[in-house]
């Protein structure tokens, strides 16, 4: 997921002409004061932590300042925060607008409808999570014509707008739609969209770019800082590799089998630490690369759960054995294998020759993995 911070989302919105408050980024109180003196920001202003988690308003990560001194205090205070586990490295400082109402507007991909939906609520702001379902209106949008006039009127009604703000809504929604479509977003959200005088201003921005479209948007390549260094290496090699909190590694093929394997492991008391989806590959070189990556993650034990469909068990097994040899002795981990399906007998034989037993039963193999991880954790301290 390419999730943009507020200031990055606002930069996108600015490109599409969505009205925003004037503001600037700062990484220190000194920098904020310089911006104030230079007239880049004015007073009163709002200081906002640039973190990826939401709920900043309620969590003390959005503060107001009416004087230069209060601005310094707010910047220092927020930069000292660790917000929901994320260190605050920069703040966005914006002019404080005098708002009459706070609205919620977003366009998201609805996977069950298989359509984008325009979602609006007249009760926007920090309490949006607590708004009853009846207070939220969803308008499915056909992607070819995009937002049409009556849908925009429907949104204006749902938001209880009339006069100037109602007139401003149409063009704003067109711009938001344009951003959603051209940036290949899965979400563009404005909460709150503030009614200010006769117009509308986006006070917050949440933009998520569809991962599968990332290749079309090299401009967001730098944004992705939610990957671990190993995940980054995996991505470059085109391997689906995700690190989690536990100590057991899972190598499976196909997203369905991989997810199911994680569930079964958890059910038997195992804590998945990293999973790797080989997908449809049985290319020994690719399997070797995947295996070495797994070794780098230093799991206490690894469960290899392969179903041979298009992928043949024997080629996966061959790649695996080849890979095992390249992992230095000290970095080897206990491996439990379950390899079933196409060319199963050959695959099992290749593994057996290399000293790896394949357990056909899922529960048995999961239990063996959990036990192996516990044993290796108690020996080597890999927890
Ligand atoms: P979030 O809580 O992380 O979503 O942070 P927001 O950017 O949405 O800010 C939280 C709340 O701060 C908003 O819902 C507003 O109530 C308030 N707020 C933010 N900017 C302004 C502003 O310029 N003027 C006023 N009056 N309130 C603001
Ligand atoms: Mn918000």
Helix share bin: 25-40%
The secondary structure category is: alpha+beta
Low-confidence stretches are none
Largest sheet: 7 strands, antiparallel
Percentage of β-strand residues: 25-35%
Bound small molecules, by name, code or SMILES, are: guanosine-5'-diphosphate, manganese (II) ion
On the 0-100 scale, what is the average pLDDT? 92
The count of strands amounts to 18
DSSP helical segment count? 11
Spatial shape: elongated
Overall description:
The strands form four sheets. Strands 1, 8, 9, 10, 11, 12 and 13 form a seven-stranded antiparallel sheet that branches. 36% of the residues lie in helices and 25% in strands. The chain is of the alpha+beta class. The chain binds guanosine-5'-diphosphate and manganese (II) ion. Guanosine-5'-diphosphate (GDP) binds at residues 21, 46, 48, 54-57, 62, 96-97, 99, 102, 125-126, 191-192, 203-204.
């Amino acid at each position: 997921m390419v999730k943009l911070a507020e200031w990055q989302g606002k930069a996108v919105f600015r490109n599409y002409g969505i009205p925003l408050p004037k503001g600037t980024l700062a990484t220190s109180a000194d920098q904020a004061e310089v911006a104030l003196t230079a007239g880049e920001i004015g007073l009163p202003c709002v200081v906002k932590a640039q973190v990826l988690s939401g709920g900043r308003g309620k969590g003390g990560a959005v503060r107001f300042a009416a004087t230069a001194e209060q601005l310094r205090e707010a910047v220092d205070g927020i930069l000292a925060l660790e917000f929901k586990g994320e260190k605050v490295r920069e703040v966005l400082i914006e002019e404080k607008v005098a708002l009459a109402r706070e609205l919620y507007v977003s366009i998201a991909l609805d996977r069950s409808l298989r359509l984008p939906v325009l979602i609006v609520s007249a009760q926007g702001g920090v309490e949006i999570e607590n708004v009853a379902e009846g207070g939220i209106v969803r308008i499915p949008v056909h992607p070819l014509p995009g937002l049409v006039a009556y849908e925009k009127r429907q949104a204006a009604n749902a938001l209880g707008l009339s006069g100037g703000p109602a007139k401003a809504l149409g063009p704003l929604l067109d711009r938001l739609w344009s951003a959603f479509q051209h940036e290949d977003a899965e979400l563009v959200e404005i909460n709150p969209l503030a009614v200010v005088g006769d117009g509308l201003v986006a006070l917050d921005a949440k933009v998520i770019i569809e991962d599968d479209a990332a290749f079309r948007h090299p401009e967001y390549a730098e944004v992705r800082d939610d990957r671990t260094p190993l995940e980054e290496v995996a991505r470059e090699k085109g391997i689906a590799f995700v690190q989690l909190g536990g100590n057991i590694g899972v190598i499976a093929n196909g997203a369905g089998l991989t997810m199911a394997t994680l569930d079964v492991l958890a059910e038997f008391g195992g804590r998945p630490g990293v999973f790797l989806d080989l997908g449809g590959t049985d290319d020994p070189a690719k399997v070797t690369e995947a295996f070495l990556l797994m070794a780098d993650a230093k799991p206490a034990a690894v469960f290899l759960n392969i179903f041979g469909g298009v992928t043949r068990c024997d080629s996966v097994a061959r790649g695996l054995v080849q890979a095992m040899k390249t992992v230095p002795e000290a970095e080897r981990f206990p491996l439990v294998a379950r390899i079933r399906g196409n060319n199963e007998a050959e695959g099992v034989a290749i593994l057996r020759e290399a000293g790896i037993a394949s357990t056909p039963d899922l529960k048995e193999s999961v239990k063996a993995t959990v036990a192996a991880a516990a044993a290796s954790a108690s020996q080597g301290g890999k927890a």
